Amino acid sequence: MNRPAAVVLLSGGMDSATTAAIALSRGYNVHALSFRYGQRHAAELRAAERVAEHLGVTRHVILDIDLRAIGGSALTGDMAVPKDTPLEAIGARIPLTYVPARNTIFLSFALGLAEVIGASDIFIGANALDYSGYPDCRPEYFQAFQQMAGLATRAGVEERRRITIHTPLIELSKREIIEQGLALGVDYGLTLTCYDPSHEGLACGRCEACLLRLKGFREAGREDPTHYQADPSLRSG
Q1: Which of 95, 123, 188, 203 could serve as 8's disulfide partner, Cβ 3.0–4.6 Å?
Q2: What stretches of the chain adopt beta strand conformation (E)?
Q3: Model pTM score
Q4: For 60-86, how does the pLDDT look when each residue is reduced to its tens digit (9 = 90+)?
Q5: CB under 8 Å to 29, separation ≥6 — which residues?
Q6: What is the DSSP string of 152-201?
Q7: What fold is seen in the domain 5-234?
Q8: Per-residue b/e over 55-86, b at no fewer than 16 CB within 10 Å?
């Protein structure tokens, strides 16, 4: 039996790796899509390649888009990545690590790939619970994008083929994401969830992404298998 194709946005972090594993567990033929978008490090792309190989996806596409020309983010410019934010303050305001229109840009490319391969399903590992408050990670945003996809594609207009945007992690805590991923065989030691890793690919352990990841592993009662620049257990919180 032919499996239906799906496009999965794969950053190399724990959320996208879990999302890819979920898509595979649901019987999809996964085409992973990553981006070299001018981010300040290439370590996450190496992680994406490791994850794609480990999960055995059908195809892994890496596209080049240089968002440094737009700027406006600590991830694509020279602004310092915020560090050591108290956990209770994360998500209270949109941080400097927000990349303007990033999910809209990424989903637009995913939409194009889905049309070409005849896929009706796009998966993205967005989370609106344990997250930094990005506006393009909210459920209402994805609902609006899905509606737009039906209006802007030949699949939606001529073929009446609905493109569905799947956000299986949207209402899960980091603990729940980790538990689900482990149950599906995700090797989190292959992933990198950090906004400011070293040149060697070691996570900083201090940015919001690292802090939320560490919180999730603590709450799950598991040791985080990623490699950090310093022992995160030495810090309080």
Answers
A1: 123
A2: 5-9, 29-36, 59-64, 121-123, 164-166
A3: 0.93
A4: 999 999 999 999 999 999 899 999 999
A5: 2, 3, 4, 5, 6, 58
A6: HSHHHHTS----EEE-TTTT--HHHHHHHHHHTT--GGG----SS--TT-
A7: Rossmann fold (3.40.50)
A8: bebeebeeeeeebeebeebbbbeeeebbeebe
Q: What gap in Å lies between CA 130 and CA 144, rounded to an integer?
A: 22
H or E segment at 51?
helix 43-55
Q: Is the dihedral of CA 161, 171, 109, 213 positive or negative?
A: negative
What pLDDT shows up at residue 162? 87
Question: For the chain, which residues make up each domain, given as ranges?
Answer: 5-234
Helices (H) and strands (E) in the chain, counts: 7, 5
Strands lying side by side in the sheet with 29-36: 59-64, 29-36, 5-9, 121-123, 164-166
Q: How far apart are CA 103 and CA 109, in angstroms?
A: 10
